Amino acid sequence: MNIHEYQAKALLKGFGMPVLDGRVVRSPDEALVAARTIGGPIVVVKAQIHAGGRGAGHFADDPGGKGGVRLARTPDDAQQAAVAMLDSTLITRQTGPAGRIVRRLYIEAGCEIARELYLSLLVDRATGRIVIVASQDGGMAIEDVAAATPERILKEAIDPAIGLSDYQARTLAARLDLHGRSIRAFTTVLRAAYEAFVSLDAAIVEINPLVVTGSGDLVALDAKMSFDDNALFRHPELEELRDENEEDPREREAARHGLAYVGLDGTIGCMVNGAGLAMATMDIIKMEGEEPANFLDVGGGASRERVAAAFRIVLSDQKVRGILVNIFGGIMRCDIIAEAIVAASRETGLRVPLVVRLAGTNVERGEEILSHSGLKIIPASDLGDAARKIVAAVRAEGVA
Ligand code: GDP
Ligand code: MN
Questions:
Q1: Which long-range contacts (CB under 8 A, 24 or more apart) does 300-305 make?
Q2: Which tens digits make up the pLDDT trace of 204-215?
Q3: Which residues have a beta carbon within 5 Å of ligand 2, which is an ion?
Q4: Which structural domain range is residue 300 located in?
Q5: I want to staple 53 with a disulfide (CB 3.0 to 4.6 A). Which of 19, 28, 92, 170 is the partner?
């Protein structure tokens, strides 16, 4: 689960992260009041969407215009910026061409910037450890730094048995060319990020930029956090930070039914049991030259209702131009799958070609249910056959 910048800053502040005074607003009038309350010579108006690159982005109705991070010299300026940004679509290199509608703004005190650093914590799957990534080249996309000057990216793994040690923080501070009071400030920043990461079961904490001010203090000017969905049950307080506007509606519906579903950009909807088989199915669709529209594992002993819900989600996805069902009935019975497919298709309507490959428990009964359903279903004998058939069917429809 991802959260907004202002929410991440509030959480991190609770762990001692230095952040500036700010207010979240949902209207230009609120922006005016917030800018007055914060005061100072400059406030910054920041679009709150679950995507980075806002500063360098642009609004759909103003292609050559300003981005989603704007400096305002007066409360009136802040109000005007809010008028321009709210309910408009912000396009950044992370949103894709469709962009995201801005519904909230963060009004924050201005900051005097001497240097912009990069800092993030994430789980390195290869070592199974939390890794600190830091760079002197903050404020820009870290992917670009990694591609152009990989030597300017510093990495430091944290031993889970020892935790973050002060010496690691000080060593990193020195490698970031920090001096004097900035070294202790960096230790505080890193400890706050680490404590937040571990206690909230985060998947990523990213501060870009981490700013060094003229007086040598450090400030988290931007913050991104995302959490491990499998650990969210341990943090009911995080659930209220969820912004459903920012989530894929297909994934939201799937989560309601306890399904493992990831929305993708392709055209072939997949319904499979078992994560390994689901991945193999996606691979073989790609090998046949098409792209999967989703990853969907209906799980082991799923009920007829759950399978029907899964099939409905795939059916109702407007990007889907063909569906491949690939079930190996072990604990899962093929007749239950067949009944669920028939029920969901009757209810939602089957508007695209459907290829079904069933194997295992009660396969004959399953095939019988499908062939007597009156639905136009293309049977397949194995996975390769199924992938070839669905790709051929989708391409035939495309030409017609
Ligand atoms: P992002 O583009 O989505 O990553 O949004 P950021 O919060 O990182 O803002 C982008 C850039 O705006 C930062 O790298 C800063 O250079 C600049 N910026 C943000 N806040 C301030 C501020 O208070 N003063 C100044 N001068 N620049 C700021
Ligand atoms: Mn940023």
A1: 300/273, 300/274, 300/330, 300/331, 300/332, 301/331, 301/332, 302/273, 302/332, 302/336, 303/336, 304/336, 304/339, 304/340, 304/343, 305/340
A2: 999 999 999 999
A3: 208, 222
A4: 249-399
A5: 92
